[in-house]
Design brief:
- Helices cover 14% and strands 38% of the residues.
- With 118 residues, it is mainly β.
- The longest helix has 16 residues.
- The N terminus is likely disordered.
């Protein structure tokens, strides 16, 4: 695993597959990966496979010209009390088939931290 202070990035031919059993043939009809809900499930499942940690939530999702981009929140270090646990926010890029193309940790924060907008 990369250094805790730095961000992590993975891409290339080592693509993970979610194993959801959805069809990839035809016009895309019936493929859950073409929907926002399918993209959320796919991003979370593939990131879990790579990191070995279950995602807590998908905090953002948007379609792109090449597929989907999602932000997935992952518990990285559990502490007591829970509000001091360390979370990681990961940007996950999926192609049009729902396969993970890259991921990058963009932020680390404590669970109890609230974003402040100025």
């Amino acid at each position: 695993m990369a250094s805790e202070a730095g961000s992590e990035r993975r891409s290339g031919s080592g693509r993970a597959r979610s194993g959801s059993g959805t069809s990839r043939s035809g016009t895309g009809k019936g493929r859950s990966k073409g929907t926002a809900a399918g993209a959320m499930r796919s991003a979370a499942a593939q990131l879990q496979e790579l990191l070995g940690r279950p995602p807590e939530s998908v905090s953002a999702l948007r379609p792109t010209d090449d597929g989907w981009e999602a932000y997935v929140e992952v518990l990285e270090l559990e502490r007591i009390p829970e509000t001091t646990s360390v979370m990681g926010s990961y940007r996950v890029t999926l192609d049009t088939d729902g396969d993970l193309v890259s991921y990058e940790r963009t932020r680390r924060y404590t669970r109890g931290q609230i974003d402040r907008r100025d």
